[in-house]
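Q&A log
Question type: sequence-to-structure
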Amino acid sequence: MGPISVEVALVGQVFRSYLSRVVSQNSIDPPRNFHIGTDERVRALAIGAPAWSVRKRRIEDTEAKWVETLLALRAALIALARSESEIERALDAKAATFDYAKLNALVAIHNRWYPVEANLRMDPRSSAYLVAGRPWQKEAEYTPERILELVRSR
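Response status: OK
Response body:
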């Protein structure tokens, strides 16, 4: 190997080292304070998402769909120059048509099984399940008032 090829090899090595540092700092996949083991990766690929996360996503998607429906109704009524009381009555009537029993059944299942499925730690003093070091709170049931409050807050 001649002197030029050694210089090219050194420049290439320095560039690769620099590039690896830049990519690791600017990566879309940020550094983490935990490690996902190979067994957990294989399980996720073979079985799919954990049941608790699928359930939580269904709850959140249903909530978002209902809120968007009510926001669209409110926007349509505002465009028709309806009074505030007419808008409130229409929103109340529409919110009452949603299937809260089905969603609340899903919430009850989630509240029952989430701590076990997510393998939450337990505080030995209080016997409370912990999420990120804080006590886990059960998901509240959905009511027309809860959905309307979400709409009013937007």
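Response note: Residues 40 and 102 are 32 Å apart (CA to CA).
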